[in-house]
Amino acid sequence: KNHSYQEELGLAREVQQALLPSNGGLWDERIATVAGLAKIESKYIPATELAGDYYDVIPLGPGKVGLFICDVMGHGVRSALIVSMIRGLMEKASKHADRPANFLRKMNKGLCRILKPTDVDMFATACYIVADFNANTLRVASAGHDLPLLVEKGSGDLLECDVSMGPALGFFDDAVFESSIYALNTIAEALLYTDGIYEVENQLGDQLGQEFLCSALNQCGKMKSNEALGLLMRTAADFSAADGYGDDVCMFAFDVVNEPKKGHPE
């Protein structure tokens, strides 16, 4: 029975991994809409065979792309099931994918509808951004998730992300989400992440902390995004007293490499 159970877990892991945009040979297709305009890199390390973190890239037409990241409560079988539900809800809400607040609202309604008849107490935090090089905009919305780190072009300083954060997905059917708009030509990089990267603990039980991400991102300077993500991951792993990170880790970097259209964002 144990052997059979392990086989089932292995199959479930393969299916879950196949959902990620970096697998299945679809990565280049997903990011093609911003080819030559931006570079998108990701790092993803599940804590167990089945993970509760998920990320995706949504092509929205020439010069326009959406980046989604979420963190389901806990990890393991239950979290993996919710991740699969979220992936399906993203498909259903796809016609709203160019408006982050509407996109999260539709997904939240769908997840609440699924979970309401059950006794399962589960939720997921999520952050969704849409970069539009045609309109010179970066739209950001959050459902209880850590806000992205936005690096200012030229200075390398972190911009204040003042998005009004809504509740996590799956809590309230009538939840309201809002988005903030930034001028894309003032941004060099946007970093999305889950809490597994900064909640690693050392032997004394101290957490690395979100401040680490901010200072480390500044230290990365002009590193390429894949090198910067690798450095952040290695630093967290070195800090951790455990063999690994203790939780799922997902990081998602969006680097602007070509100037968007000038002018004020819509």
Protein described:
The protein has 266 residues and is of the alpha+beta class. Helices cover 30% and strands 25% of the residues. The chain contains six helices and ten strands, in the order ααβββααββββββααβ. The protein has helices spanning 2-19, 27-31, 77-92, 100-115, 210-219, 225-239; strands at residues 38-45, 53-59, 64-72, 124-132, 137-143, 149-152, 158-159, 179-183, 187-193, 249-256. The strands form two sheets. Strands 1-10-9-6-7 form a five-stranded antiparallel β-sheet, with helices on one face. The chain has a five-stranded antiparallel β-sheet with strand order 2-3-4-5-8. Strand 2 (53-59) and strand 3 form a beta hairpin. Helix 3 (77-92) packs across helix 4 (100-115). The protein is globular. The N and C termini lie far apart (59 Å). The mean pLDDT is 85.
**Low confidence ranges:** none
The biggest beta sheet reads:
5 strands, antiparallel
- Strands side by side in the biggest sheet: 1-10-9-6-7
Q: What fraction, in percent, of the residue positions are helical? A: 25-40%
Radius of gyration (CA) equals: 18 Å
Query: Which H/E pattern describes the elements?
Result: HHEEEHHEEEEEEHHE
Mean pLDDT: 85
C-alpha termini separation? 59 Å
| Helix and strand composition category | alpha+beta
Give the total of beta strands: 10
Globular, elongated, flat, extended or rod-shaped: what is the shape?
globular
